[in-house]
Design a protein that fits this description.
Helix content is 47%, strand content 17%. The protein is built from 15 helices and ten strands. The model has no long low-confidence stretch (mean pLDDT 92). The chain binds guanosine-5'-triphosphate and magnesium ion.
C-alpha cells in the first residue's frame, strides 16, 4: 500500500463520491486494494471548508468506510476566492483546515509500508479546491519531496460561473505546474458533452427522450475515466499476480517524461457485447480535440491506452493497428521513439458483471494550451483593469503571485506549441 487519496473542496469530494461508488460496485478486492485497505477502510482524506459534502460522502459510501480523523471540515466556504483558500486563514486558528489536513496526511503516510505518492482531486476555480488544493500541493511537495503528486483537476465551464474563475484558474494552473508531477485535466464543458452522449445512448434504447445531464452523471464519467486509468492492470502485476498499486506513478512515468509538460487529456469508450477494437478506437478518436480555435493542429508528447476486457485476446490481434491509429490521430511527436504505451487487464472493472470492454486513453496533449490561452487572456484583461484584486489582497495575495503565474502559463503554452514544430 503506497498511496494517499486526497479529496479537497465540493467538486473534489463529489467526484470522489462517484469514485468510491464505482469501486464499491463490483470491483474485486484486488482492484480496490491500492485504494481500500483489506479491512474496508479507504486510504483517503476528505477536506472541505463546509461540512455538507464530506458528510454525504461518508453517508453514501457502501462497502468502504473513512477514518473519522480523515474527514476534515470547516464551517464556511472560501467564497470562490483562491487567496482565501490558499492563506489557510481560519477562525478560530486551531481549526485550520490546512494544519488539520497536513496532520492527517502525516499520519496516513506513517501507515503506509512505503509511501509513493498522492492523488489529489479538486476543482480549478472553487476557493477551497483551488486555493487550499494549491497550498496542499506545495506543502506536500515540501514535506515529502520523493513522493509523486498526481492531480485530478476539474476546470470550470468556459463562461458564466463566477467573476473570479479566470484568476483562480490562472493561479491554480501555475501552482500545479510548479508542484505536481502530472495533471489529469477534465474540463466541465468537455465532460458535459461526453456525459450527454453517454446518457443519450442509454436512454434512446429505453424511451427515446433526451435527458438533461446531471452533475452526478458528469462526475460518474470522470470517475469512470479515473478507474480506467488507475485501477490495477495485469500488465503491471508481478509474476505471482500481485498488484503493487503502481498505476498512478507508472502513468506519470509514461506520460510526463518532461517536467515542462504535464497536462493530460483523457477519453474513454466502454461497450458491451463482442469487442470490435477498430470501431471502439474510432469512436474514442472522434471525441478528442484535433485543432485549436486559432487553427493549430494539436500534438501529443506521449499517450497511454488502457484496455480492460475479458476479450483482451482479441485486442492482442489488433493491438498494432489500434496503437498505430492512436499514434497517428493524437499526432505523437516523431522524436519520441515509443510514444504510445499500452496496459491490458482481463476484466473490465467499469462494468464487471457483463461481457463488456473499455478503452481509456490519456495523452500529454497540446489542447491543454487552449485552456491556458483562454484563462490568461481573460485574467490579463481583468488584471490590467485591476478588477477584483482587493479580494485577493485581503488574504495576502500579491501582485507577484499573478505576474509569476502569467509567466508560468505563458511558458507552458509555448512548450506545447513547440511540440508541433518538431
Ligand atoms: N464536474 C464537477 N464540477 C463541479 C462540481 N462541483 C463544483 N464543480 C465545479 O467546481 C467549481 C467550483 O468549485 P467547488 O469545488 O464547488 O468549490 P470549493 O472548492 O468547495 O470552494 P468554496 O466553495 O469556494 O470554498 C466550478 O467550476 C464548478 O463548476 C461537481 O460535482 N462536478
Ligand atoms: Mg464549497
Amino acid at each position: 500500500m503506497s498511496l494517499v487519496w486526497l479529496q479537497v473542496g465540493q467538486c473534489g469530494n463529489q467526484v470522489g463520491q462517484e469514485w468510491w461508488e464505482l469501486l464499491s460496485g463490483g470491483a474485486s478486492e484486488a482492484d480496490r486494494y491500492p485504494y481500500v485497505s483489506r479491512n474496508g477502510i479507504a486510504n483517503a482524506i476528505c477536506v472541505d471548508s463546509e461540512p455538507k459534502v464530506v458528510r454525504r460522502v461518508q453517508r453514501l459510501a457502501k462497502n468502504v468506510s473513512f477514518r473519522d480523523s480523515n474527514l476534515i471540515v470547516g464551517r464556511t466556504g472560501r467564497g470562490n476566492n483562491w487567496a482565501y483558500g490558499y492563506s489557510g486563514v481560519c477562525v478560530p486558528p486551531e481549526e485550520s483546515l490546512l494544519d488539520r489536513a497536513m496532520e492527517s496526511f502525516r499520519r496516513e503516510v506513517e501507515r503506509r509500508d512505503c509511501y509513493s505518492g498522492t492523488v489529489l482531486l479538486h476543482s480549478l476555480c472553487g476557493g477551497t479546491g483551488s486555493g487550499l488544493g494549491s497550498r496542499l500541493c506545495e506543502e506536500i511537495r515540501d514535506a515529502y519531496p520523493a513522493g509523486h503528486i498526481l492531480s485530478v483537476t476539474v476546470a470550470p465551464h468556459d463562461t458564466g460561473e463566477t467573476p473570479l474563475q479566470h484568476y483562480n484558474s490562472l493561479l491554480s494552473l501555475a501552482w500545479l505546474q510548479r508542484y505536481v508531477d502530472g495533471v489529469l485535466l477534465f474540463q466541465n464543458d468537455d465532460v458535459m458533452r461526453q456525459a450527454t452522449a453517454l446518457s443519450e445512448k442509454k436512454t434512446q434504447t429505453v424511451s427515446g427522450v433526451q435527458p438533461a445531464v446531471s452533475l452526478s452523471a458528469m462526475n460518474s464519467h470522470i470517475a469512470s475515466c479515473l478507474a480506467g486509468l488507475l485501477c490495477p492492470v495485469q500488465t503491471l502485476r508481478t509474476q505471482s499476480s500481485v498488484s503493487l498499486g503502481m498505476e498512478p506513478w507508472e502513468l506519470i512515468r509514461s506520460l510526463c517524461p518532461m517536467p515542462a509538460l504535464k497536462f493530460l487529456h483523457t477519453a474513454q469508450v466502454c461497450r458491451r457485447g463482442t469487442a470490435f477494437w477498430d470501431r471502439v478506437t474510432s469512436s474514442l478518436l472522434q471525441t478528442i480535440p484535433r485543432v485549436s480555435p486559432d487553427g493549430r493542429l494539436h500534438h501529443s508528447l506521449s499517450a497511454l491506452a488502457v484496455v480492460r476486457s475479458s476479450q483482451s485476446h482479441s485486442f492482442l490481434a489488433s493491438q498494432d493497428a489500434v496503437l498505430g491509429k492512436l499514434k497517428q490521430t493524437y499526432r505523437c511527436v516523431p522524436w519520441n521513439p515509443s510514444p504510445v504505451d499500452c496496459w491490458i487487464d482481463t476484466q473490465n472493472v467499469l462494468d464487471p458483471a457483463c461481457r463488456s470492454h473499455s478503452l481509456t486513453v490519456s495523452a500529454n496533449h497540446s489542447s491543454a494550451a487552449d485552456l491556458m490561452i483562454r484563462v490568461t487572456r481573460r485574467a490579463q484583461a481583468m488584471y490590467s483593469a485591476r478588477a477584483y484584486l482587493h479580494w485577493y489582497r485581503r488574504y495576502g495575495g500579491e501582485d507577484e503571485d499573478f505576474t509569476a503565474a502569467f509567466h508560468t502559463l505563458h511558458s507552458v503554452i509555448e512548450e506545447y506549441h513547440q511540440l508541433g514544430q518538431a
